[in-house]
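Researcher: Let's try something more involved. This one mixes different molecule types, so please make sure each is placed in the same coordinate frame as the others.
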Amino acid sequence: MCLGIPGQLVRWVEREGIFSQAEIEFDGVRRVVHMACVTEAEVGDYILVHAGIAINRIDAREAERIFETLAEWGDDEGWHESLPEGGEHES
Amino acid sequence: MKYLDEYRDPAAAQVLLDEIRRVSTRCWTLMEVCGGQTHSLLRHGIAAELQGTVELIHGPGCPVCVTDQADIDFACQLAKRSDVMLTSFGDMLRVPGSQGSLLDARTRGGQVRIVYSPLDAVELARRQPEKQVVFFAVGFETTAPATALAVKQAAQYQLDNFSLIVSHVRVQPAMESLVESPDHRVQAFLAAGHVCTVMGYQSYDRFVARYQLPVIVTGFEPLDLLQGILAGIRQLEAGEAWLENCYSRAVQVAGNQSARDLVQEVYQVSDCRWRGFGLIASGGLSLREPWLRFDARARFAECGLPVILNSACRSFDVMTGQLKPPECPHFGKQCTPETPLGAPMVSSEGACAAYFRYAGV
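Model: All components are placed in one shared frame. Result:
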């Protein structure tokens, strides 16, 4: 019920007021999402979608923080070798 | 998927698990507030992995579970009317009211339609002007912007055949109600990340100061949850209690101002009946004056019914962390997902459903 799904903004459909909409890609599937609450988002941005509307942008810089923290704790576990380069995942 | 899969990396999770075990000198009791977090903790085996190091107790953060039976009964009554199309998130269909569920109402010929978004319900109302389309608006502050936007769009389209059963609930008053109880066991809270995405987390400052309990804004993926648990334990081990954001990729201190403005414009804070809890002061939202024409309760006032309470379900004890679902005498016997005695066994975020589904993970 309170889960948000991250997706990437592919194309603005309408960028004005309460009828703002954009095409968002979720793991290869594209869907038109209501954007009235995140009109500042740009193409390429990742956003969080809940119940058909965007509720926030995902801050890419902040998203990397946990992996930097883990890296600071050392590489004894070799954990980062299991991640794609740069901590990113290719869908 | 980007921003999901990398937060499920088992090796990275192991690093966090090891750190949690390293810093813990005793078994602490943390409550994850949101039902989505409960499911993730059980699904990914985190609760079992940390058994003996951290006790995770499950909070009241399943809006489906706490929706008042009277609201469900009202929705079922509306669904029986030939002029009404009742729309709802799928989570609500099997939740029992005092006289059956929306699924029962549909089986008996009622028009009940699952929608992904309240904005889809607005579209249905536009396309079917002969029908009264009613959306059952449940959910925490995460969902309120979507339903507020639906109201504004309906007003813009000048729809007189769209209305809402507003059953929105607010998470923080429930947390306050919980810690006011003298026998609560919570030592730190993992706050519901997506509520904070919308509302921010400034309002927790007073909560932390008053109750001297750590509050950690936490996401939903395994690494998010482990990070939140670690932050909470570090505070507890240091004898500290402060507000910490471990979900900063999606949550800023003031939340999403546009979404908050939208909610503020359409809704006002009001007292609200929570299933299992009773009346919680400031525990819900109701439509403000300019939008009251979209209130289904006013539009269909004659459809109210007396509620017959089902006392067998121990949902209150489960949602306040007093009882683990398997400890309930009805769990897995009289109460299963197929024959639920209460909402926590059927909701996609219900703690009982999570234990039933992921038992043995």
